Amino acid sequence: MSRLRTEQLIHQIETLARATGPVQIMEVCGTHTVSLFRSGVKSLMPAEVRLVSGPGCPVCVTSQGYIDAACDLASREGITVCTYGDMVRVPGRSGSLENRRAAGAQVVVVYSARDAVKFAEQHADRKVVFLAVGFETTAPATAAAVLEATRRRLMNLWILPGHKLVIPAMAALLAGGDVPIRGFLLPGHVSVVIGTQVYRPIAERYRKPCAVTGFEPEQMLAGIANVMEQISAGVSRIDNVYGVAVRDGGNPQALGFIDEVFEPEDTIWRAMGTIPMSGLGLRERFLRFDALRKFDLTIGQDYDPPGCKCGQVIQGKLEPSSCGLFGEHCTPSHPVGPCMVSSEGTCAAWFKYGRRERREGNASSSGVQTATR
After folding, report:
1. What CATH class does 59-165+250-294 carry?
2. pTM
3. By the 8 A CB rule, do 371 and 2 touch?
4. pLDDT tens across 278-288, in order?
């Protein structure tokens, strides 16, 4: 990244901040949260610009009821639970999938939904359930896996539906009015799939400036500067500074997979309750793959572990350091909530990088070096 370009963007943000006064910008994506810390960009912000995390970590927004259902499945005889690695250590009411595995349950970490299909094909004697979590980024792969399992006539594979949609959650946050968000950094990975135009209600109805950005320091700084420019000018639109990967209409093939296999449905988000039409349920043609139906399961009510403020963190209402458990009773080695478990979790990012940021200080020359190396 060009040091000159970095300094220009920082100067632009500082100049705009003096004109706008205090603003709060939410990065929706968990990968942005980690990248903003790791690159040093967060430490470069002037005092007027506050970056807050949103509900963009898939594991973090998954309700405790879903975790409990997954643990229930793992405890049953003859069932193998296939899951992404971040889900294994998330605590439920009575332990985690990691605890179940230690007690003898078969919990297999996979890197894609396709791996679950392969596992089911190779282990015909097992009932295999894939934990289908994530946003529009991972939903196409789950849909493709369901279609592949249909073609192969695999009768021992099911999914536990848990995919969520980004835009209904953003709208729910804004409709609640609890967090004074002035603008959004939109998620790069999700936007590759869904495109930019679907965010128009956020800009037009709620009058919030938005910028789609990638994950390199210069891209994130450019996105912040773009949002600040819109705020300063009193306009609200969707700008795309990640044009190398994101198109207005998204990825038609990926969207086609999602539409063929899934349909929107109401779903429970951690701490945010049931958000209408914010999840993906299987279409009638594919209900045979629904683990809820097959194993007579229900997703119970959401709840927070005692003292855990993860639900407030993912809504931008609270910074992790304000949680009484943070850094002492809740650490990556002994997490209380999912925000400390996931690699995209805000609390994990604060724990790993926050102390470095405090040492370097805001907008220091050493911070510029951190962002450019």
Report:
1. alpha beta
2. 0.91
3. no
4. 999 999 999 99
